[in-house]
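Honest question from a wet-lab person: if I give you the sequences of every part of a complex, can you actually get the arrangement of the whole thing, not just the pieces? Trying it with mine:
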Amino acid sequence: MLLENVMLALTGLLANKMRTFLTMLGIIIGIASVIGIMTVGDAMNKSVMGSMGDMGVNNITVFVTQKMDDDYNFESEEYVRDMKDKDYFSEEMIQDISGHFAGRIEGVALKKSAGEVKIEDGKKYANINLEGDNSVAFSQAGLKIIAGRGITKSEQHDARKVIVVSDRYVDNMLGGDTQGALGKNVEAVIGNKYYEYTIVGVYEYSESSGQSQGAGKSRKDVRTNAYIPLRTALIQLREKNQYDEMEVIAKSGEDQGILSNEIQNYLNQKYYKDNDAYESYAYSMKEEIKSMESMLNTQTYAFAAIGAISLLVGGIGVMNIMIVSITERTREIGTRKALGATNGCIRLQFITEAVVVCLIGGILGVIVGEVFGMIASKMMGYSGTASPGGIIFCVMFSMAFGVFFGYYPANKAAKLNPIEALRYE
Amino acid sequence: MSKIIIPETMIEAKGIVKRFNVGCENELEILHGIDLNVKKGEFVSIVGTSGSGKSTLMNIIGLLDKPTEGSYLLDGVDVCKAGDKELSHIRNKKIGFVFQTYNLIARTSALKNVELPMLYAKVSAKERKERALELLELVEMKERVGHTPDELSGGQKQRVAIARALVNHPSIILADEPTGALDSSTGRKIMDLFHKLHEEQGITIVFITHSPELAKETERILTLKDGSFIDERMGIKYAS
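Yes, you can. This is the full assembly:
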C-alpha cells in the first residue's frame, strides 16, 4: 500500500513537473541554507579549535594580573604601579608549584622570547624567532627532531650557547644538509649585540606547529622558531629569573578546571595575600576551548535557525500546493471513496505525496547546501563538512515537515463527502 | 454486529425516506418511503426524469449516503448501522460503480485503474494484475491495458470502468446512466456488455437511466417520479 502510494505520488508529481519543482524549491533553499550554514560553522569551528588546540590542551596558563576588588571600576583609569620584582613569579615559587602539585602535573613550562631576527650571510638569509625554553617547554613544543638532538638538562643548567633550528633554516642558510648543519654556528645580532650559538639539533618545521608567523609568506620568508636554553636567554637579555607567565602542564586525566583553581588559590594564599596591586590568575586551555566551542556552536545554531525560517516558508508553499492539488482532484477523491478507499487511505495518499515532495527537496537541499557550504568555507580559507548527524537530521526533518504540512490538506481530502466530491465540476 | 440471513434478495430496502436540511426552514424531502427489492442475479432498471430522486436513491443504494428513515439490507447485511470505515469496506467488496462520466483516475493506465479497488481490498500485487487482465479481456480491452484514460475513447473508458466495477466480485453493479455520455452505437455496445455479464455471469445489475428504450431491455423497470415509485413492469424480453 505504501509503495503504491509512493508510486502514485511520483506519477502525480511528474505530471506537473514545473509546479513540483517550484514547490520543492522552497524546501531545497530552506534545507540548503541550514546545511550550508552548518558546513561553514563546522569549518570555522574546526579552524578555531585547531589553532587553539595547538596551544596545548593540557596547559594551564598562570599569569600575574592586577588585583581587582569587588568594586573595581573598569572604566576608571586608576594609576596602577609598575610591576616590581616581588610581583613576578620567582624561581622559588615555580619550584614550590612543581613540588606541591607533583604527581598531578608534568611540570612547569617557561619560555622567554629573545626576539625576532633576520640572520644574514651574504645573499642568504633566514627569519627566526629566538626563543629560550626550559626543558618542559621544549618538550611541550613537540618538535620532530630530524638531525642531532634536543637541548639537554646540563645545557639548560649551564646556560650553554646551543641552538635547535628548523629544517627551513638549514635549507635557507646551509644548503639543506641537516646532518652537516650540526656543529655549525648561528650568528645573530639582537639589539646591537652579537650572539653566537652552536647548532645541536634540527627539527622538521610544519605549518600546523603553532608557529603561525609564516602564514601567507613564501617558503623562504617563513619565520621559524629557533630554540635556546632558557637560562642562556635570560643571561643574554640580562633579565632576572622571574616571570609574569608560566604554563603548568597537567597530567592527562586531571580535571583542569579544578587544578587551575587550586593553583591560583595556592599562589594567591601563599604569595600574593599581602600584595597591594597584583595577584595570580590561572585558566585552563581546555576549559577555554570548551566554552569557545559552545559559543561557536550556539552561533551556528542561531544562524541555522534563521535559515530554518526559509524552510518554514517552503513548508507553507507545500501546504498551499497540496490544497490546490486536492481541489483539482476532488472528483478523483470521490471516485476513490466510491471504490472503497477509507478516509485513512485518502489521508495516507496525500500525506505520502507531501512527504515525497519534501523528502526529494530535502535530499537535493542537502546536496546543494553541502556544495555551497564547502565552496564558501574554502573561500574563507577553512575546510568543513556538515556532520552526518546533521544531514540525517535534515532529511528526517524534511520528512517530518512533509507530514506536518501535508496533514491538514490530506485530512481535508479525507473528510470530503463522496457524493459532493463525485459531483464536483 | 450485523445479522446475516441467507440472501435470496440482494437489496431489501423498506420505507426509505431522505430529507435534506433536516430541522431547517428549507427542509426538503426527496424520497418518500421507498420500498425496493432486488433479487440475486436480477437486472433491474430505475427510470425517471431528472429531479425524480434517482441519484439520491442511487447514492443510498451505493452506500454513499444514508437514508433519513427506513431500513436497508444489502446481501443480508444491515448497512444502516455501519460506520464510515465499514461502509468503505462494504462499498469496496459488494458494490461495483459504473458512472456516466466514467470517473477513471487520470494519468493512470487502464490496468492500474482496474486494479484500484483491489488495492483498497489489500489484494497482493500479483493477484491484482492477473485479475485485472482477466477482466480487461472480458470487456475486450486487453489490447489497451497500458493506455491512460485520455488515450481512450468514451466507449473504451466505460469498458475499463465496467471491468473496474467487477474486479472485487461485487454483489451488485450499480450503473448510473452508463450510456448517457456515449453516442447511440457505442451505447448499444455497452448495453450489450451488460446483458452479456448478466446472462453469462449472473451478475445483479441495478441500472439507472432516463432512457425508457434501454430500460425496456432489462428484466424489470421501476419508474420513479417525485420521490416515489409510480410504476413497475417487466421488460419486453421477460414479459412473456
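Two things worth pointing out. The longest helix of chain B spans residues 184-201. The domain at 41-65+82-234 of chain B is CATH 3.40.50.300 (Rossmann fold).
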